[in-house]
């Protein structure tokens, strides 16, 4: 059995977005979003390099990475630490591109833009739960509150943009 539980795999697949932290050569942090996240197997998660020069440069110097994913309605998620192997123009990259072509709508059109695959071997996994739960809120209440919040944000966006 690998390190990734079924719920971790569900969270990663459902959210379709991670934030990936790498270490710059000068020791400063680098954090950027990656929407091409894919669970590869019980120990590996990957994303593809489409437009990530900073992340890719950093990984050449230091293969350490931390990623996290968060459900903005449940205010729960996971964080994972690991080390990466970059795959370029090999069988694994071709297989990932094929999965993208048949995959979720946010990645189907991006398969041909893949420059490399960043395959993360997950070495540590930890759950994330908002301190908003400390007062005893249930997940159903939390989801409902944040659904309302985001519905209002979207309504404000429509007000600002639809007649612009
Ligand atoms: C929602 C979202 C998803 C993204 N997904 C990816 C991705 O999967 N791969 C990628 O290379 N860039 C992706 N990007 C673009 C990079 O995050 C962006 O170019 C960033 O500045 C790269 O920073 P870096 O070079 O420090 O990694 C995404 C951007 C956003 C806003």
Mind explaining what this structure looks like?
With 164 residues, this protein is of the alpha+beta class. It has two domains: 6-129, Electron Transport, Fmn-binding Protein, Chain A (Pnp Oxidase, Chain A, Roll), CATH 2.30.110.10; 137-164. It has helices spanning 6-15, 53-61, 91-101, 139-161, and strands spanning 18-23, 29-34, 38-39, 44-49, 64-71, 76-87, 116-129. Strand 5 and strand 6 form a beta hairpin. The chain is globular and about 45 Å long.
In short:
The protein has 164 residues and is α+β, with helices and mostly antiparallel strands. The chain has helices at 6-15, 53-61, 91-101, 139-161; strands spanning 18-23, 29-34, 38-39, 44-49, 64-71, 76-87, 116-129.
């Amino acid at each position: 059995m690998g390190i990734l539980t079924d719920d971790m795999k569900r969270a990663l697949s459902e959210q379709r977005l991670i934030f990936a932290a790498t270490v710059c050569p000068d020791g400063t942090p680098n954090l950027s979003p990656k929407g091409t996240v894919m669970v590869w197997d019980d120990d590996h998660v990957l994303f593809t390099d489409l437009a990530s020069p900073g992340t890719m440069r950093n990984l050449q110097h230091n293969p350490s990475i931390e990623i996290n994913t968060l459900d903005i309605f449940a205010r729960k998620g996971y964080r994972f630490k690991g080390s990466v192997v970059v795959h370029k123009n090999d069988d694994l990259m071709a297989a990932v591109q094929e999965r993208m072509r048949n995959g979720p709508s946010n990645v189907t059109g991006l398969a041909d833009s893949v420059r490399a695959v960043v395959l993360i071997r997950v070495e540590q996994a930890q759950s994330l739960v908002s301190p908003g739960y400390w007062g005893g809120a249930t997940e159903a209440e939390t989801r409902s509150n944040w659904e309302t919040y985001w519905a209002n944000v979207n309504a404000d966006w429509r007000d600002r943009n639809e007649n612009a």
